[in-house]
Amino acid sequence: MTIEYLSARDLLEALPDATLIIDRGGVIVSGNRAVNTLLDTEWVPVGESILLFLPEQERSRLNPLTWLQRWGDEPHAPELAHVRLWCRDRAGEEKAVRVRVGRLPTEPITYLVMLVDVTQEQAREHRTRSAHRLAARLLDISADGILNVDESLKIVYANPSAERLFGYPHGTLVGQPLGELLPERFRDAHERFMGRFAQESSPSRLMGDRAEICGLTRSGDEIPLEASITKVTMDHGLVFSAQLRDLRPRRH
Questions:
Q1: What global pTM score does this model have?
Q2: Hey, which bits of the chain come out as E strands?
Q3: pLDDT by residue (tens digit) across 194-252?
Q4: Residue 178 DSSP symbol
Q5: Taking phi first (over 0 means left), then psi (-120 to 50 degrees means alpha), and beta for anything else, what does residue 26 get?
Q6: What gap in Å lies between CA 143 and CA 135, rounded to an integer?
Q7: Using CA of residue 18, residue 19, residue 25, residue 29, what is the dihedral sign?
Q8: 133-141 contacts: CB < 8 A, separation 24 or more?
Q9: Rounded to whole angstroms, what are the CA distances from 100 to 75, 106, 206, 241?
């Protein structure tokens, strides 16, 4: 198979993403049919400035023509790898687009600009970030102590209630062995329990399913605890999450 007989127009139309050819002044020289869908136009707006399709906040936030030249001259610059802009179609609807730019070997200089609509993708990312912030907030204000540990039983997360429960300053529990929070006489048995739990098919042991356990504070005091534990397989391996409830108020 050869492509010598394909014209530039054929190659441009074969591209699945909206693709424009723009001169150094930002004027549209050519484009493919995918541009019509993105910009809601009946035909490629040849002769018009790309600035007409940028919302006012984008034009005030940056100089699009300066960035156009920079993208073309330094296409592999790390800070340009995931740049997103907002564009505006003929109907005034704003869309988030991911931009890639290549400098064409023409005289005068022109740029090949590929635009991918990521509006829905960005909305999903926003919802995901919001959900993560909510989950983090709920963990922070939980009355129960919550500890996450990795497969080596090193603590990778401790919420403020867990830090207060065991008497540790903020941030100092992370990286500590979980066994440091147990009286020494229980550490071997607890490690064996965690090993068995890692092999079980059940993803959790809830409060009430386990006998009372004993914790050890930083000052050396033993405290009675009720605990539930879950496990989740992450990219880097198994993570255990323990929810701990201080039984002393109930006993009092």
A1: 0.62
A2: 18-23, 28-31, 84-88, 94-104, 110-117, 145-149, 155-158, 204-205, 213-216, 222-234, 237-246
A3: 888 888 887 777 655 556 789 999 999 999 999 889 998 887 788 999 999 999 887 77
A4: G
A5: left
A6: 14
A7: negative
A8: none
A9: 8, 18, 50, 42
